[in-house]
Write a structure and sequence with these properties.
The complex is a heterodimer of chains A (137) and B (396). With 137 residues, chain A is mostly beta strands. Helix content of chain A is 8%, strand content 37%. Chain A folds into 2 domains: 48 residues, no CATH class; 79 residues, Beta Barrel (OB fold (Dihydrolipoamide Acetyltransferase, E2P)). Chain A is globular, with a radius of gyration of 16 Å. With 396 residues, chain B is an alpha/beta fold. Chain B is built from 14 helices and 13 strands. The chains are: A mainly beta (137), B alpha/beta (396). β4 of chain A pairs antiparallel with β5 of chain B.
C-alpha cells in the first residue's frame, strides 16, 4: 500500500511538533506574551506577533467539531481505503486539529458532531513520526 | 447616498468552449482579451493596466503583459484563487478612480479539463517546498470536495439545514443552465448524465463524493476562460455598449482558527463592507452571481452577504425565489454557474461576466429591468483558508 503523504523536512515551523510524535506526544504552543494558543505550529504568534512561545503537551481528549466522509479520492494512498472520515477536532486545551477519525465501522452514521473523541496514534514506521488520529471516546 | 460612477465594465467575453483540446491557457486569455476589447469598442493600444493571477507565464504579471503585447503602467498580480477577479476588479476600479489608469484588462484561461486536473478529488501532491500547513494537513487525505463538506456538515448540525434545502441550489442553477446554449454544450461535451432540468431528488440520488456533498452539488471541471475590460468614466463615453458601473467592493480572508465558527465565511466581513462601500442594501439586489463551487459555498454567500440571517439560508433557498422568473429574492447564477455551465478552476471571472450580461440585458435567463447585481467570488478552500470578495454593479 502506498504510504500516506508524510510531512516533509526541513520545515522549521512544524518540525518540533512532528519530532514529538516519535515519542507519542501531542504538543502545541502558547504565546509567552498574549498567552493565546498557536496552532498549527509557528515560530511567531499569529495573534500578537511575539516571537516568544512555549510548547505544552495535550492530553489528547477533545470534541468532534465537524467531519466529512471521503468516498472518492484519486490519491494512490487513499483511493483503495474505502470511506474514511476527515475531521476537525477541538482539543480540550483549546486548539483545533485536522485529523482522521478511525476505529468506526460506518463513519457517516457512527460519528456525530459534538461527540467526545480521544487520541489514537498511527505509526508510520520504525523510528518515524506517528500521525495523531482520533477515535470515539 | 449617490452611487459611484468612476469606473465601469465596458467589455466582456466568455470563452465559449468548456472542452478545448489543443488550446493553451495563454491562448484562451489572448482570444478573450481580443473579443472583450472588440465588445467594448476599444483597441489593444488603449489598455494601460493589466490584472492577472500570474499563472502559466514566466514571471507573474510581466509574462502576460509581454505575451499579450501590452505596455501597462499598472500591473497587479493578485492571486487568491477563484475570487482573484473580484479582488482585481476592486483594485482596477480604485486605481482608475484615482487617475492612475484608464483601461484595465483582466483575463483568465485554464485547460483544467484537458489536463485531466482532478481539482476536487486529488488530495495532497507532495510537491513544492514544504510549508507548515501542508505538513499538518497532507497526511490525512483531505480532498477539495471534503474541505467544503466539512462546512456543510457543521451548517446542518448548527442550523438544521437539510440535504433537500442544499439541493435547491443545484436545481436553480440547472434551471438557468438549460436556457444557456453554452452551458448545454458544456454539459454535453463533458458527458453529464442527463442534460436536463433536475429535481432535489435527482441531487440526493446522485452519488456521494464526500459526505455530505453529492455529485450534483459539486461544480464541473472544464476548460475555459474569459476577459473583462474596465474603463474610466471618460473612456466610457467612447465605448460601444452601455457601461456597467462598479459601485462597490471589499475583500476579506478567513482561516481555520482555534475555536472559530466554520459556518461564517470571509463574506461575513467583506459582504457588509461592500454594501457600505456601494451605498446599497441586499434587498435592492436583482441579480446574485455567487461562486458555486459547491452548494455550501452559495449558502454561506447568501447568509454572509445579508440576503437572510445566518442559519436561515436553508429556508431562504427552498422557497424557489432564486430562479430568474421568480420574485422575492435575487436571481442566482443565471448562466448556470459552476455547477452547470463553467468551472475551469477559478470561476470568479464568470460571476463578473454574468452579472454584467444581466445589467446589459444580455443574459439567457434575463431578469426584467435589473438595476443592481452582486458578483461574489470565493477563493481557496472554504473549510481551511479562503478569500471572499463581492463586486457590486449597477446598470447605467
Amino acid at each position: 500500500m502506498t504510504l500516506r503523504p508524510q510531512p516533509r523536512f526541513p520545515e522549521p515551523d512544524s518540525q518540533p511538533f512532528w519530532e514529538a510524535t516519535k515519542e507519542k506526544k501531542l504538543i502545541y504552543q502558547t504565546c509567552d506574551s498574549c498567552h493565546k494558543i498557536i496552532f498549527y505550529p509557528r515560530a511567531h504568534c499569529p495573534s500578537c506577533g511575539s516571537l516568544e512561545n512555549s510548547w505544552n503537551e495535550s492530553k489528547g481528549d477533545g470534541i468532534l467539531y465537524t467531519y466529512s466522509v471521503v468516498m472518492q479520492s484519486r490519491h494512490p494512498a487513499f483511493k483503495d481505503l474505502g470511506a474514511y472520515a476527515i475531521a476537525y477536532v477541538d482539543l480540550d486545551e483549546g486548539f483545533r486539529i485536522m485529523t482522521n477519525i478511525i476505529n468506526v465501522d460506518d463513519p457517516v452514521n457512527d460519528l456525530e458532531i459534538g461527540m467526545k473523541v480521544k487520541l489514537s496514534w498511527q505509526d508510520q514506521g520504525e523510528g518515524e513520526i506517528a500521525l495523531p488520529m482520533f477515535e470515539p471516546a | 447616498m449617490s452611487q459611484k460612477r468612476e469606473a465601469a465594465i465596458v467589455g466582456i467575453h466568455e470563452y465559449p468552449l468548456r472542452v478545448a483540446p489543443g488550446v493553451s491557457a495563454l491562448q484562451i486569455k489572448a482570444a478573450s482579451a481580443s473579443k472583450a476589447l472588440e465588445d467594448a469598442g476599444l483597441s489593444w493600444q488603449d489598455v494601460d493596466a493589466v490584472y492577472d493571477n500570474g499563472q502559466n507565464q514566466n514571471i507573474g504579471g510581466l509574462g502576460i503583459s509581454e505575451y499579450l503585447g501590452l505596455k501597462p503602467r499598472i500591473i497587479d498580480v493578485t492571486s487568491v484563487g477563484g475570487t482573484s477577479y473580484e479582488f482585481q476588479a476592486h483594485h482596477a476600479a480604485t486605481m482608475i478612480a484615482a487617475g492612475k489608469a484608464n483601461v484595465a484588462i483582466l483575463t483568465y484561461g485554464s485547460t483544467a479539463h484537458s489536463n485531466r486536473t482532478a481539482i476536487g478529488t486529488a488530495g495532497a501532491t507532495g510537491v513544492g517546498a514544504p510549508t507548515p500547513f501542508n505538513n499538518m494537513e497532507d497526511p490525512y487525505g483531505m480532498t477539495g470536495i471534503a474541505n467544503y463538506a466539512l462546512v456543510k456538515a457543521r451548517h446542518m448540525y448548527d442550523y438544521g439545514t437539510t440535504m433537500e434545502q442544499f439541493a435547491e441550489i443545484s436545481v436553480t442553477t440547472r434551471y438557468h443552465a438549460m436556457r444557456n446554449p453554452e452551458a448545454v454544450k458544456a454539459m454535453t461535451d463533458l458527458e453529464f448524465v442527463g442534460v436536463n432540468e433536475i429535481t432535489t431528488k435527482d441531487v440526493l440520488d446522485s452519488r456521494m463524493i464526500a459526505w455530505p456533498l453529492h455529485l450534483l452539488e459539486c461544480c464541473m471541471v472544464s476548460d475555459g476562460g474569459g476577459a473583462v475590460v474596465i474603463a474610466s468614466k471618460e473612456v466610457v463615453k467612447n465605448c460601444k455598449k452601455k457601461p456597467v458601473w462598479i459601485i462597490g467592493g471589499a475583500e476579506a480572508t478567513k482561516y481555520r482558527e482555534n475555536g472559530g465558527d466554520i459556518t461564517v465565511s470571509a463574506g461575513g466581513q467583506s459582504g457588509p463592507a461592500s454594501f457600505e462601500d456601494a451605498g446599497v442594501t441586499p434587498n435592492e439586489i436583482d441579480v446574485l452571481s455567487a461562486y458555486d463551487s459547491f452548494s455550501i459555498t452559495v449558502m454561506l454567500m447568501i447568509e454572509d452577504l445579508g440576503f437572510c440571517k445566518k442559519g436561515e439560508g436553508g429556508d431562504y433557498v427552498s422557497s424557489g425565489i432564486l430562479k430568474f422568473d421568480q420574485t422575492g429574492g435575487p436571481a442566482l447564477n443565471t448562466d448556470g454557474g459552476g455547477l452547470s455551465s463553467n468551472h475551469p478552476g477559478e470561476r470568479g471571472i464568470f460571476c463578473l461576466l454574468e452579472a454584467t450580461r444581466q445589467m446589459r440585458g444580455e443574459s439567457t435567463s434575463q431578469v426584467a429591468n435589473p438595476k443592481l447585481a452582486v458578483a461574489v467570488g470565493n477563493g481557496g478552500s472554504l473549510g481551511s483558508r479562503h478569500a471572499t470578495s463581492p463586486t457590486i454593479l449597477a446598470a447605467d
